[in-house]
Amino acid sequence: MHILLTGGAGFIGRHVLSEALARGHEVRVLDSLRADVHPAAAWTPPDDVELIVGDVRDRAAADRASEGVDAVIHLAAKVGLGVDVDDLPDYASSNDAGTAELLAALARRGVGRLTVASSMVVYGEGLGDCPEHGAVSPAPRQEAMLRQGMFEPPCPLCARPLEPVLVTEDAPIDPRSPYATSKFAQELYAANWSRMTGGSVAALRYHNVYGPGMPRNTPYAGVAAVFASALRAGRAPRVFEDGGQRRDFVHVRDIASATVLAAERHGLGVRAFNVGSGTPRTIGEMARSLAEALGGPEPVVTGEYRLGDVRHINADSARIRTELGWRPVENFDAGIADLVGSAW
User: Fold this and answer.
1) What are phi and psi of 133, to 5 degrees?
2) What pLDDT is stored for residue 49 in this prediction?
3) Contact indicator for 328, 206 with CB cutoff of 8 Å
4) pLDDT below 70 — which residues of the chain?
5) pLDDT digit string (tens) for 200-234?
6) pTM score, two decimals?
7) Judging by DSSP bridges, how do beta strands 134-136 and 246-247 pair with one another?
8) Which residues of 292-305 are buried (b: 16+ CB within 10 A; e: fewer)?
9) For tag attachment on the chain, is the N or C end more exposed, with fewer CB atoms within 10 Å?
């Protein structure tokens, strides 16, 4: 296939590009190379890859990039939880308006296959198991509770402690940050496009991605990159809350293989797919693994918190395994060694 890859110069994008080329696809990259994501020198693509430097929000760039392609993998987005309310317009513009502009270009160019990068953050706190009420959606954590170190979200009906459970793609959507809201908005715009054009959409809800090439020294970086940057500078990683937050850390090469496979195999209707390793770990465990791998100081558990962060989110990735035949193959310990050994 001839694939348009938006955001192909980014962290995940470069790995998706390598995977697509390895599987024999022709790839065109559209990337704005915006300075807050690409602070280093300009990126040079492989010789057989066309790079269009442009923003998906620009109609002319979107039209040019989508001409003559068979499928689109849409990764271009502003990522991270956000710093403050001033980030709201950028999330809405970069992610939502950008996706809408791209979809309009696909309709004009007659492109009918789309794979879009979404996120597990669309589920909010996901689901918890209450001994009395069963599976419930935890209410947003209140700052008064967090200030007292009460980090576990209680049952919204009886206030009993909850056990986290895996969530499927049919779980309630409950975005609790600007980034999460923009990711689900992208899914909704893509579904609108599908209904109007008959195109197919695979919305991949990525879990916490880590691996070589992670962006660092930015407030929008992932937690693994933040910890690794501190350790490389000789500082102890600072772990928020009590370190017991559960996440599914999935290697970027597994993300890349799932993304290209979805572009190849999903060709009918709109379908969301969770993409995770299937092995939940805590934030504290990630920090300790990186400290050990880098020979740095032990993590410091600070009790600090960020409003909008969720406590636990772990989703069931059975759908993509069953329907598309994808399997994660990267070992966590080897993946950590891969991350810390990379020149980034």
Assistant:
1) -110, 0
2) 97
3) no
4) 39-41, 81-83, 216-221, 343-344
5) 999 999 999 999 988 765 554 578 888 988 998 99
6) 0.93
7) unpaired
8) ebbebeebebeeeb
9) N
| Phi (first) and psi of residue 202, to 5 degrees | -110, 115
The single-letter code of the amino acid at 115 is T
Q: How far apart are CA 242 and CA 316, in angstroms?
A: 25
**pLDDT the model gives residue 40:** 65
pLDDT at 41: 61
Q: Whole-angstrom Cα distance, residue 114 to residue 112?
A: 7
pLDDT of residue 220: 46
User: Long-range contacts of range 189-196, CB-CB < 8 Å, 24 or more positions apart?
Assistant: 189/96, 189/99, 189/100, 189/103, 190/99, 190/103, 190/114, 190/116, 190/270, 191/270, 192/103, 193/103, 193/106, 193/107, 193/114, 194/114, 194/269, 194/270, 196/107
Tell me the C-alpha distance between 188 and 203, whole Å. 10
Give the pair of three-digit tokens for residue 36. Answer: 């807050």
Phi–psi pair at 204, nearest 5 degrees: -95, 115
Number of other residues whose CB lies within 10 A of the CB of residue 74: 25
Do residues 8 and 29 touch, judged by C-beta distance below 8 A?
Answer: yes
User: Up-side HSE of residue 51: CA atoms within 13 Å toward CB?
Assistant: 17
State the pLDDT at residue 39: 65
Terminal CA-CA length for the chain: 31
Beta-carbon contacts of 35 under 8 Å, excluding residues fewer than 6 positions away, are none
